[in-house]
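Reviewers of the previous submission asked for a worked example of the structure-prediction workflow described in the proposal, so we include one complete record here. The input consisted solely of the amino acid sequence. No template or homolog information was supplied to the procedure at any stage.
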Amino acid sequence: MAFGVPGKTPTTHEDWQRRVLDALDAFSPGAPIDEASLLAGRSSQIDRMIETVFQRGQHAILYGERGVGKSSLANTFSAKVVGGARIITSVPVNCHPSDDFSRIWRNVFRRLSREGKPVSEYYPSEIYPDDVVVELSQFSLNTIPIIILDEFDKLMDQKARNLVANTIKDLSDRSVKATIILVGVADSIGDLIDEHQSISRCLHQIQMQRMMPSELKEIVSSRLGPLGMLIRGDALNHVVSLSRGLPHYTHLFGQQAAKKALEAKTLVIDLEHLDAALPDCIERTDQMLRKNYHKAVSSPRRENIYTEVLLASALAPVDDLGYFAPADLRTPLSELLLRDAPVSLYGQHLKKLCENDRGNPLEITGTDRKFRYRFVEPMMQPFILMNGLKKGLITRKQIEDLAANHYHSAIVGEL
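From that input alone, the workflow returned the following structure tokens.
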């Protein structure tokens, strides 16, 4: 079975080249999605965001792991808002580690105008929560302002975080028709904002989890359709297994495999095109990830098993927060080493992979005999799998079999 929409076959070399450029443009591995029509697989989260906007006094906090598409959703969902005669004004602002409350809102006010001038010009010095309430109250009745504070987790100033919470509470108490959306990397909203309990009644908590296989498949098929391309079912399953629920990699694999297929002058992507795209996908992975991976697995001892332990970690089943127990590595590591691998064989390896000398790809929590581990950077996992394939340490089937339960048990049935 193949997925996509068959199209007209290009007839000239120039036509094929134009289709390659279209394929490169159709997928977005390097930047957040900026068109709501391309935001596949997030309908439930989009619905909750829209509900928040249309409930006066309600705001939202969008949180989850890095790489799951939070910024894409926050910056594009407003295009899905159908408000009749109402006008949606969306103001996205990125938070920076050095920002304080005034700097954050001055950046917001620069994007708003009053009497033909940026609102920021009216606030040359400190800005207070009441100033924000006043300005956001100025919009006409048929205008809904949405203020998106992205990368909120990077904000180091705790006072600024607390003032944002106070601002949300004031806006809700005064029933101002404006919505603030906080976006950040976190396991829970408590990691983003200490004052969350005091504003829980007016703050919708929307967790972005890793995407399900059906959602990742939708990303690929929705982009291949306009290209007139198809992808075979086994190739699509391989993209899903490698992506580990992270849409960035689905875009990367889809883009590069489509490019390889078009260069071979075919509109059908199969496994050989994915195999051919693997080196390019590795090359296009973030340089820091590649550097940390090399640091983690390098050793002067030829018999070291850091590569295999890291690969087994990328295949281990995890809980909802991404943690795995040392015992969870036994099955995948035994398959990789072709012998039984008790915890005593690799327990110290896991601990060392949490240290700076090894680039600390893992982090540890818990107490002795109850330790649990997870990747500091979730984007490292697919990169590890790609390297395992390239080096011949693992097969395509092993990835699909061992990775099946990585994040959602339902993945087994969907694959």
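Residues 247-263 form the longest helix (17 residues). We consider this example representative of the routine output the project will generate in years two and three.
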